Amino acid sequence: REGNYVGGFSRENGWGGKGYGGVVGSMAMQGLPAYYYDEIRPNTTVELNGCRYNHMGANIFYQDVPNFIRKYKDLHGKCRRNVEGCEDCRKTDVELVKNMHFTNCRKPWNCAGKSSTAKGNIDPRTANYDHCMRVVRKWHEARSDLEEKIMNVTGGDEKVLEGRSGGYNKDVFMGHCTEDGQDGYLPIVASKEVMAKVAREIWDAWGN
Predict the structure, then answer these.
(1) pTM recorded for the entire structure
(2) Plot region of 16 (φ>0 → left; ψ -120 to 50 → alpha; else → beta)
(3) What is the SS3 assignment for 131?
(4) Above 70 in pLDDT, residue 1?
(5) Residue 39 DSSP SS3
(6) DSSP string, 134-198
(7) Are 54 and 33 in contact (CB under 8 A)?
(8) Residues 6+ positions from 140 with CB-CB distance below 8 Å
(9) 10-59, pLDDT tens digit by residue?
(10) Are 179 and 111 in contact (CB under 8 A)?
(11) Banded pLDDT at 2 (limits 50, 70, 90)
């Protein structure tokens, strides 16, 4: 930080005092790239497909929450980006997604397996439940792969399998959840020393 961040949530706050700080996330990476490429390196960007990059599985059409105002009838059903023919991210093939942002589909460790407007559940107004289950499963597949690496490092110590003993929605959460909600999440069972060794091996493999 170089002193170019102005605390607060108005048009005179945020990065460079330019208003890039309207929400909490703007203090970090959600605000910094926008500020950098608008103010520091303008006209050097290419807009990416939000359904493929930073994928949230969100309803990008102006049909409901968030920030939906019914009187703006000329906007109803149109793309929030104000372009024609935008992709419906709730239907995007998960295999086409480059990286995921777990917001609308909830954090994988929230063990959110219900669709409703209740807090913590997958909101059907902004996300598709089945799509979210496919998205979240990808994370749990990655965790399962990490657990296999931990077993290899420990010579087959099956203690790590304690973190897979949950029975809630096992087809999606792969044993990492015992019940709906964050209280049902089972963390990885491994010592700091083992995790550090696994991290080094993964890093070395990338380097090769």
Answers:
(1) 0.82
(2) left
(3) helix
(4) no
(5) helix
(6) HHHHHHHHHHHHHHHHHHHHTTS-GGGGGGG---TTHHHHTTSBSSSSGGGBPPP---HHHHHHH
(7) no
(8) 108, 172, 173, 174, 176
(9) 777 788 888 776 666 777 777 888 888 998 999 998 888 989 999 999 99
(10) yes
(11) low
Amino acid identity for residue 68 in this structure: F
More confident residue, 92 or 73: 92
Tell me the C-alpha distance between 54 and 50, whole Å. 6
Residue 20 DSSP code? B
- In contact, 91 and 162? CB cutoff 8 Å: no
Contact 180, 168 (CB under 8 A): yes
114 DSSP assignment: -
pLDDT digits (tens, 9 = 90+) for 165-180: 999 999 999 999 999 9
Q: Which CA distances in Å does 42 have to 6, 36, 60?
A: 21, 8, 26
Q: Is 42 exposed, middle or buried (0-12, 13-18, 19+ CB in 10 A)?
A: exposed
Burial class (CB in 10 A: 0-12, 13-18, 19+), 207: exposed
Determine phi and psi for 127, rounding to 5 degrees: -150, 155
Give the Å distances, CA to CA, from 106 to 23, 80, 115, 130: 18, 21, 11, 13
